[in-house]
Fold this protein.
Amino acid sequence: MIKQLKQIHSLTNQEIADLCHVSIHTVNSWLKPPTSKSHNKCPLVCIELAYRKCGEQLPPEFEERRMKDLASRLPYPYKC
């Protein structure tokens, strides 16, 4: 989702870092392939913050990922 925002607005990694108040090294780790050992998943709060600061609506898959993230934190299995 960060890659999409980066492409839409032609943002640099440093600009994304500034939007999310993180280091450029953190952004670099978000943008690495998921198979890379140094890849880190971008926190949902950073995705939401970056999209809102750019005046963009959140992509549909954001809500799906947020719900999966919330369900994984429940102490019991949750089924829709």
Q: What stands out?
A: The mean pLDDT is 89.
